[in-house]
From TrEMBL:
GO terms for biological process: transmembrane transport. Signal peptide: none annotated. It is a multi-pass membrane protein. Keywords: Cell membrane, Membrane, Transmembrane, Transmembrane helix, Transport. This is Sugar ABC transporter permease. The chain crosses the membrane at residues 47-71, 122-141, 153-173, 201-225, 246-271, 277-297, 309-332. Residues 116-329 form the ABC transmembrane type-1 domain. It comes from Alsobacter sp. KACC 23698. It comes from the Bacteria. Belongs to the binding-protein-dependent transport system permease family. One of its GO terms (cellular component) is plasma membrane. PROSITE patterns: ABC_TM1 (PS50928). Gene3D superfamilies: MetI-like.
Length: 340
């Protein structure tokens, strides 16, 4: 076999040593993998690659889940499970001890039910307006408009930001001496204490959450719109069908599987909202924007008396709700794939 020709160009002469080094590294990595494959066989190799991820998932997901369930059946204020007495389902009974579930004030653990009530209000408003604005935005961005690529990027950009960063930006805008009040006073108006009035606080919590996540759901709906065959719209246009009728009779039915996915994902995200609202309002004023996840966090870590058992029971209940919503989402996804 003849030797390879010497490198002729400057680029080849520079890259030749790196290519040799790369080959040595790859051969060094191949050697142990070939040895392992020879011992366990090629058919067992996928399990080897899955093992680190399975170990990580079990250590940081399943193990904390099991520990949390164990805490929910214990009482006292000790940290270690061995020092905590078993109390059965009394923590769950404590949470559900209510005269009227629609009136948090009649419940023994009124803050929990206030959080449930606020979470229900927050999720209902967020999902309705999130889906509505996302659908409207997706329809507009699917049209042949100037700068369409730019606007698609702009609408998706907030999704890339950390929820804490989003909340801090809007808190700087909405606080008493913030940018929005500066504009209002500059126009001759009065300052509005957005974080002091309960109605305004909930409004801005919902608004900021929609602003931060709308781009993700818009992208899902936009993908659904682009999957609709254009010849259907061309046939409707030839028949002289009005745009409103085309939207109601063609676009919405064909987009319905994507809409269902968006609704379920928005529900799951809304129920487990914590960081944005916590940084923005801190659950205030009072408990006007206190959500369930914040109640769990404060019960376990922030209160003067840390009640890990009660927080564990509340988180198990929340987990069951999220598990149910996840099953719905999987069922919808499978139904969508089957219809496709």
């Amino acid at each position: 076999m003849s030797a390879p020709p010497p490198p002729s160009t400057l680029g080849e002469r520079v890259s030749a040593p790196f290519a040799t080094l790369w080959g040595l590294i790859m051969r060094g990595l191949d050697a142990p993998m070939r040895w392992v494959q020879g011992r366990i066989g090629a058919r067992r190799m996928p399990y080897l690659f899955l093992a680190p991820n399975a170990l990580f998932f079990g250590l940081f997901v399943f193990l904390p889940l099991i520990i949390n369930i164990a805490y929910s059946f214990t009482g006292g204020s000790a940290l270690y499970l061995s020092d905590r007495p078993y109390v059965g389902a009394s923590q769950y009974g404590h949470l559900f001890d209510c005269g009227n579930y629609l009136d948090p004030g009649s419940c023994r653990e009124d803050h929990f039910w206030r959080g449930v009530q606020n979470t229900g209000t927050f999720v209902a408003l967020q999902v309705v307006f999130m889906v509505g604005f996302s659908l409207l935005t997706a329809v507009v961005l699917n049209m042949d408009i100037r700068g369409r690529g730019f606007f698609r990027a702009v609408y998706f950009f907030p999704v890339l930001l950390s929820p804490v960063v989003v909340a801090l930006i809007w808190k700087w805008i909405l606080q008493r001496e913030g940018l929005l009040n500066a504009v209002l006073t500059g126009l001759g108006g009065q300052k509005i204490l957005f974080f002091v009035e309960p109605g305004w606080a909930m409004f801005w919590a919902v608004f900021v959450s929609i602003w931060a996540h709308m781009g993700f759901y818009t992208l899902i709906l936009l993908a659904g719109l682009q999957a609709i065959p254009t010849d259907i719209y061309e046939a409707a246009e030839m028949d002289g069908t009005k745009r409103s009728r085309v939207f109601a009779r063609i676009t919405l039915p064909l987009l319905w599987p994507n809409l269902i996915v968006v609704i379920v994902l928005a529900l799951i995200k809304g129920v487990q909202t914590f960081d944005e609202v916590f940084v923005l309002t801190g659950g205030g004023p009072g408990s006007a924007t206190l959500l369930v996840v914040q109640y769990i966090y404060e019960t376990a870590f922030s209160n003067q008396v840390q009640n890990f058992g009660l927080a564990g029971a509340a988180s198990v209940i929340l987990g069951l709700v999220l598990f149910t919503l996840t099953l719905v989402q999987l069922w919808v996804s499978r139904k969508k794939d089957a219809s496709a």
